[in-house]
């Protein structure tokens, strides 16, 4: 029984170590999400000055107010 507990603990520690050592990003390429969610820039490298539109209410409800 002692051997089974030791083997189980060893397997859990090895699995935990493997999970922590894995990287989700490729070396030298960066993460796909980093590029996907980065701030957009124009051709000169300046940040965009456009503001987003937020339509919390439908067009019909906005006209009633």
Describe the overall structure:
The protein is mainly alpha-helical. It is built from three helices and no strands. It starts with a helix and ends with a helix. The mean pLDDT is 77.
Fraction in beta strands: under 5%
Q: What is the string of SSEs from the N terminus onward?
A: HHH
Report, as a whole number of angstroms, the end-to-end distance. 74 Å
**What is the radius of gyration computed over CA atoms, rounded to a whole number of angstroms?**
26 Å
Helix segment count? Answer: 3
How many strands in all? 0
What's the main sheet like?
none
Helix content: 40-55%
Mean of all residue-level pLDDT scores: 77
Assign an overall shape.
elongated
Please identify the structural class as seen in this structure. Answer: mainly alpha
**Uncertain runs with pLDDT below 50, 5 residues or more?**
none
